[in-house]
Task: structure prediction
Amino acid sequence: MKKDVKKVVILGSGALKIGEAGEFDYSGSQAIKALKEEGVYTVLINPNIATVQTSEKLADKIYFLPVTPYFVEQVFKKEKPDGLLLAFGGQTALNCGVQLFEQGLLEKYNVEVLGTPVKSIIDTEDREIFAGKLAEIDVKTPKSIAVTSVNDALKAAEKIGYPIIVRAAYTLGGMGSGFCSGPEELKMRADNAFSYSGQILVEESLKGWKEVEYEVVRDAYNNCITVCNMENFDPLGIHTGESIVVAPSQTLSNSEYHKLRELAIKIVRHIGIVGECNVQYALDPYSEDYRVIEVNARLSRSSALASKATGYPLAFVAAKLGLGYGLHELKNSVTKVTSAFFEPALDYVVCKIPRWDLNKFTGVSRQIGSSMKSVGEIMAIGRTFEEVIQKGLRMVGQGMHGFVGNQPLKDKDVRTELTEPTDQRIFAIAEALEQGMSVDEIHELSRIDRWFLEKLKNITDLKNKLGEYQTLESLPDKLLIEAKKLGYSDFQIARTVLKTSNLKMEEGLLEVRAHRKSRNILPIVKQIDTMAGEFPAQINYLYMTYNGSTHDVEFEKDGLSVVVLGSGAYRIGSSVEFDWCSVNAVETVNEQGFRSVMINYNPETVSTDYDVCSRLFFDELTLERVLDIVDLEAPKGVVISMGGQIPNNLAMRLHRQNVPILGTSPEDIDRAENRQKFSSLLDELGIDQPRWNELTSIEDIYAFVDEVGFPVLVRPSYVLSGAAMNVVSNRDELQHFLELAANVSKQYPVVVSEFIEQAKEIEIDAVACNGEVIAYAISEHIEFAGVHSGDATIVFPPQKLYVETIRRVKRITRKIAAALNISGPFNMQLLAKDNDIKVIECNLRASRSFPFVSKVLKVNFIDIATRVMLGLPVEKPNKSLFELDYVGIKAPQFSFARLQKADPVLGVDMASTGEVGCIGDNIHDAVLQSMLSVGYRIPKKNVLISSGPLRDKIELLSAARMLMEKGYNLFATGGTHKFFQENGVETTLLHWPDEPEKSPNTMEYIRDKKLDLVVNIPKNLTKGELKNGYQIRRSSIDFNIPLITNARLASAFINAFCKMSMDDISIKSWDEYK
Amino acid sequence: MPEAREIKLVLEDGSVFVGKSFGCHKSVAGEVVFNTAMTGYPESLTDPSYKGQILVSTYPLIGNYGVPSKETENGIPKFYESDRIHISGLIVSDYSFEFSHWNAGHSLSEWLVQNEVPGIFDIDTRELTKLLRDKGPLLGKIVVEGEDVAFYNPDNDNLAAMVCTTEPQVYGNGKHKIVLVDTGAKYNILRCLLKRDTTVVRVPWDYDFTKDDYDGIMLSNGPGNPAVYTQTIENIKKALQGDKPIFGICLGNQLMGIAAGGSTHKLKYGHRAHNHPVRKVGTDTCYITSQNHGFVLDTDSLAKDWEPLFVNINDNTNEGIRHKSKPFFSTQFHPEASSGPTDTEFLFDEFIGLIEDYKNK
Result:
């Protein structure tokens, strides 16, 4: 029975951040598809311009605006919707929905929340109400006391008994949560947690219990199903987003499985969910005792994973249920004949592994625990646990080849690693097993269930057997097959059997491949059909395994399929934007009458939605697996330019194996990728570049620096600790960096480049066909060069570039496109100073900014690029950046709050986890929209400026004047205070953190939350400066005070909110910008 | 992992699947069926309804949590559905030689050996399942080297007689006295009744209970072709003359249907799963059920006093019937679950409710 709703607003989740990532692009896209199918007019609010859901073919109307009650209200006023979906945009959308409800705005505008009522959401979000609700139906929750002061927290902990866990209410992915073994630790934790939430919970610790989740669906008729259960490999104590997770559960008996299932349904009915809900349990490993630890009344990371793990489209179904349908009235979208009211039966196992990028941050703790730090995840599918864990560890993409066959862990004590886990724990288990530690002992240290450990031991045991052979000819087929069944890659076999040296790995693994093929040892393609084969299914959702003997599908081999390689795990530097590119490429492939074949393994993506492509291989993006698929498909060609660096890196390797690569030839790609070759090319073309050299000794480095002068950018190829790249501005810093952070030798050369200060950074995104530029978009960074382009705030069309600069950039672009004979997408970064243009980077693939410029310009660059690659005729778009009557801004989203102790500072290495893109009538409009979208707030009255080097002080002077004129109270640290005073700007002096005896002090103002905005510009790398600056920056983050660390960006933001107020911000949908 | 000996599965259509042996290394024959459940192998293996069948688990990882302890309660094992393994053979993809569970007594492999039941792993169970789905249930045999056996069709035998109790047995001491007609009853039916203040008299399949003193009749599940159990059907017919509540499960549903004048047929490949959706006829109320049956009642064949109670949402087959005026009802699925979802256990409460109503009349 469908409700009578005509127009529905859908709230997105905004920029990707730790704890809230691509999964909500997937769930939102599904919801929109479901509503459209029902003829409902959809209005999406989401400033994340790189998502698939904000593409033109999905929602009817899109607002690139912040997901906050103020902006949603403005959209309500304008659009007059009758329904609202708030379960598809993560915690951001849910919190916004709760606020809208509490502020009476839903009632005021007569908007009905579809799906789970807000009242039920509040019941699950407020832990005290939640525990009370569950107690009503005799369901156990952890012993827990809600408190509102540190003192009460201490008392509560005494009552429950240490160790305890502290949790903050209403936060993303456990922010501010953690274990405490004593009062001291609790005091610190509680202090921090109160900065996120007025209420915290002190709870009994269930460390070491199993963690199990159920995804439950309920319709308005009270019909319930559990679509999937999942078991964490890591016991409780490690956030589920930080855990390796398997589905279905592996160590639960039928009685445990169904006891928890029954409880989940009971809970969901009692709370009154309509749609999807996730229930998380702690389960005693020695009895059937349990606790419910969390209920999420919305689509979640786990539900996206469950959808991909089972083939059951949870978000799609949840949206339909929100419209009033019953589960039994909907069809299973895989079989098309059976009902959506059923529970998927899996005949495979999946494994999710998180991806961390902790080495991108300075100072961050690498330990994993009850709060989430990972930035992405992968899912591996197979028919043995050994197979999926090995596949999965390769997919994570951090240089690991599986569970075994890796380089030994650096500076890690195995026992410590097992008890106090970091992102390296799984490899510590591998080392422990190789050292002969028993499964029991590893279990004692890690509390990981013996079943998982025994399976891991099978992998290690086989490695020892394989190691007894030296040649493939002597290796029995039986053993080789067993290795493949346990997930060994050709690489691992080469390393274990052939003992191939690192330098010859490519030859080694190809030798294994050739041998394997000659022995007919090949992977098998299986379907994910939701019914374990019970019903016939025409499903294109596939994975590969060696634990099988016949393919589920037949291959046409007619040369009409096009393989598109996806982006792999989201990571810093490569995320949803490459999914958008992949999906758009696939769409063009489909439209042009080819069959699209997608390869990707990231469960948070739309590209791994099986309704997007003709055939989805949810599998590895390794040379081995791509070749396996190419062998079966015999495609027209492979697209490697859409998924970012992972597929791009495969270009030459695939080409050498005679795989047809569509678009720019891999040789030309190599000429751009290889620093030396590219540099010579630029010289030949007479294009300027910053001077650089690859150096192998300290002396050479000093000699080179003497020639180019400071500052220089230093990029070591072997990093001892800290950041991989750094800008150093004097001899001391250089020496310090080289001694502490890097290894310099013939084997590990260091690249040193001239670093040009106060230069503008310019990006060009373009598409060329046979070397001729077809479409291009030039944008500029607000920050000066030196901030990684992924962390920079980008303006398109550029507002402050000389016409001459633009002309020169275009000329350079044309020359390079012609020289590399580019056919497809490419991106370049350039420096401009006084019309002097230098090229700093060139990538012959789609870039991070393609969705942004495509959507602002309203010219789909990926569509054009794909047509070019398919060899179809293309026309130059008749629109240019000079004609745009509006401005787009792409702003980065940082997740420093999640990364305890990390220094929230921008540098040459990328640190942001996501981005937004907003469009405004002018630059201030766009700046404000985008800054508010990534979590900044317009300050109410108090602003602290601590402005670093002189040029930044000068940069900020006019902004400070403006603030003063606007009546803001300005605060400043020593030097800044003095400088401002001399220049006629009144500020109140706040003392440095290392002078705690002096008042008023910066730290006191931050702790008491007396500041509404902190501008802190890092000055240099001296220790005292770093310490003071670090403390101000870090505590601003910890106490949730907006922080800006770049003078140019601070100026732009201050300018914007001084020149216009909230009310002046345009409330315009994408299509209104013409 | 220990070295395993070769063992193969031969099907009547000529297909051969070669795998490795992990149970009792011997040859057996039976009907090959698949089950798509992801948990519950100790329960399935001891379910008497599987008598004469070689069971394929579509879920590939089996043996993970070993097999439970032999602890008993009310004179029956706490964690099993009968006193022994009833399947003829077990076929899986990936067997876990090492198991891990607080309640595990020993490994699945040891248990199979003790019960002299063969087990095969390392074959493509998905391929086998698709074959069984497309061709219907096939007769098959598990063959070890040098020991061939003939194909065997269990449908021609009185399997219930082989698995049921040989003489009446009494369990519990509650206020309602229930006759459990054992055509291969799972112990969880007993447990579900005993939980609800009952005394249960478990009687053999052909026992004439009609002259005994009782408050209600429970018709159990069981193996094989319902048409074989003529004596049971005769006894049920007599009981249907009366007014005392009757509740049938699975085979019990088919027998009650036949006793009420209906007919049955064999499904192409049966329902053996934990995820079958049923709808209560005439409502929008749906349940996920545990199922294990090859035969099914023809809904259209029911006499006019009867009506369908539940229907399978996937294939519209009969999932239960009830008498329009008398307290008789039955389900094709397993409300007692074990293994599987527990959504419909409330039907036992309804049964007890009918008994109370009857007594209060």
